[in-house]
From TrEMBL:
It is a multi-pass membrane protein. SUPFAM superfamilies: Family A G protein-coupled receptor-like (SSF81321). This is Olfactory receptor. GO terms for molecular function: G protein-coupled receptor activity; olfactory receptor activity. Residues 47-299 form the G-protein coupled receptors family 1 profile domain. Its main location: membrane. It comes from Moschus moschiferus (Siberian musk deer). It holds the Pfam family 7tm_4. The chain crosses the membrane at residues 29-55, 67-93, 105-126, 147-169, 219-236, 248-272, 278-298. Keywords: Cell membrane, G-protein coupled receptor, Membrane, Olfaction, Receptor, Sensory transduction, Transducer, Transmembrane, Transmembrane helix.
Amino acid sequence: MIPSWSFDNISFFQPPSFLMIGIPGLEAIHGWLSIPFSSMYTAALTGNCLILLAVRRTPSLHQPMYYFLSMLALTDVGLTLSTMPTTLAVLWFDHRLIGFNACLVQLFFLHSFSVVESSVLLAMSFDRFVAISNPLRYASVLTNNAIIRIGLAIVAHATLSLFPVPFLLKRLNFCPNKTILSHSFCFHADVTRRACADIIMNIRYGLCVAVSTAGRDSLLIVLSYTFILHTVLGLASPRERIRALNTCVSHILAVLVFFIPVIGVSMIHRLGRHLPPIIHPLVAYVYLVVPPVLNPIIYRVKSKPIREAILWVLRGKCQS
C-alpha cells in the first residue's frame, strides 16, 4: 500500500520512503519468483565463499592470479548482499518500502561494488598480460605489496567516484506522485527519474563515472588482450600457444559475463524509454545477480587448481 502524505505548500520535497515495485506485471507470482532468486543468491554466496576459503587454505594458490580471483569473489559477495535484502523482502514478504536515506546507502554500495568489479577484472587482465608477456619478471612485478596497493587503489577509486552521488540526489526536489521505483532495489537512473528538478548534473556525472570506470576498464582490457594475442602468436610451438590462451579463458568469460549486461543496462536506461516496463528490472537483475552466480562456476569448471582446492575444503568440512 502506498503511504499517503500531505504536500500542501511544499516547495521542496524528499519522500520519507520509496515504494519498490519488484517486477512490474508479475506481482501476483512474486512468491514463486522468490524460489529462483533465493537459489541464485544462495549459489552466489556459497560459490564465492568457497573460492575465498579455498584460496586462503591452499598454500599452492597463494599466487597473484588467485589473489585477484579472491578480490573478485569478495566483490561478488558484496554485490550480492547489496541487493539481496530488499529483493527478497519484496518477493517473500511483500515489504516494498525503503527509507530515502537507506535507499541512498544501498545505491552507493551497489554501484561501488560494480565499479570495484570492473577494476578487479582490469587488474586480472594485467596479471595475465605480465604472466604471458614477461613470465620471468612475473613474481617480481606482482609482489604481495604490489597486489595490496592495487586492491587499495581499486577501493579508493570506487569510493571517491561514487561518494558524490548520494549528495547529488539529496539536493533534488522529488515529485510527490513519483515515489514508485521500478526495481526491488535502488538504482541510480531509476531514483534520478523520480525527481521534478533539473537532473542534467546527475546525468552528466553518472555518464562521467560510467566512462571513467567501466568504459576505461573495458578499453584497457581489450588493449591488454591485444598485447597478449601478439605475444602468443609469436610463440613457436602451437602447444605453447594453446596452453597460454587456456590460462585466459576463465577471465575472458568473466569479462563477458560482466560487461555484456553493463552495456545492456546502459543502453536501456538511456535509449529504452518506450520498452515494456518489465525489461528494465529484468536487465538490471541480469547485470547484478547473474555475474556473482556464474563467476564461481566458470572458475570451478575451467581452473583445475581451484576445483581441487574447493573439493579439499568440502572434504575437510565433511570430515570435521
